[in-house]
Amino acid sequence: MEQALENIQKLTDNIETVIRGKRTQIQFILTALLAKGHILIEDNPGTGKTVMAKTLAKSISGLHHAGGADFKRIQFTPDLLPMDLIGSHIFDDIKKEFIFKKGPLFCNVLLADEINRASPKVQSALLECMAENQITMGDVTYPLERLFFTIATQNPVEMEGTYPLPAAQLDRFFLKIYFGYVDETTELNIYKDYLGIQSNLEHIQQVLSMDEILFLQDEAEKVFIHDEIIAAVRNIVTETRRHPDIVLGASTRSGITFLKCLKAFALVNGRTFVTEDDIQIITQAVLDHRLIYRNREAKQKALSNILEKEMSRLSKLKLEY
Prior knowledge:
alpha/beta, MoxR family ATPase, ChlI/MoxR_AAA_lid, ATP hydrolysis activity, ATPase_AAA-3, ATP binding
């Protein structure tokens, strides 16, 4: 476990040579990675989402790729087709038969840029690969790489030509975060050293191997979680189904995802056990995008009220780890 904590620190430090002032967001992204999930980032253009995905991919040495883990970026547009992601059958003149040419989904780290600009038909192509790590083409099922991690972005400003992501698709994302702008001091430092940052991205070190990332995923599952914290997750999830301001509450699968993220988040923060504070920090990122609220005002208050009530119950118990 000591080696695991050391490796996480190494990876975080390496990413921070390029991504400045975003430690919390980096921790959330690594949490989704170690929980064997995917992450959705919503924000304005130019906040560093694409660079973040590239930096992560380049920090991991691939099995067959000298340039790091196999990284693919897909720009989602309204005219995109499922075959543009999955691949298609092309006719081989020599063999005189159709062969399957794999699409960009066959990779280790996928950046799905502006994911909500593609049609529901294209979104459905992503569902199987994100949930089951495989792609079915006709009557053949192709397994994806053991390490398959999707970082999807959506742009809240460009409302024209966008499709709301279906609930089933949103449920595949373990976390949804907002990248946000950096503080003024960090922004000034970026302006002074933007050439150095660009150089860091081009010459980023591969600090962990693919096997080490897979090992970290296994270690995350071993993190200790107190029975009362499991009960707290159950209480929060069931309360979202009863709350008058929430039309659609969280599912049982959401609760399992919540537990996986709590364990991974504890490991990312250098601990072998989950604390009450972890619940406080990640509940919004794990559950908010899975819920349908009655109105905008409810969206701002409902989940916070549920969380506050549960945190108050936990604080009286004085748990020991």
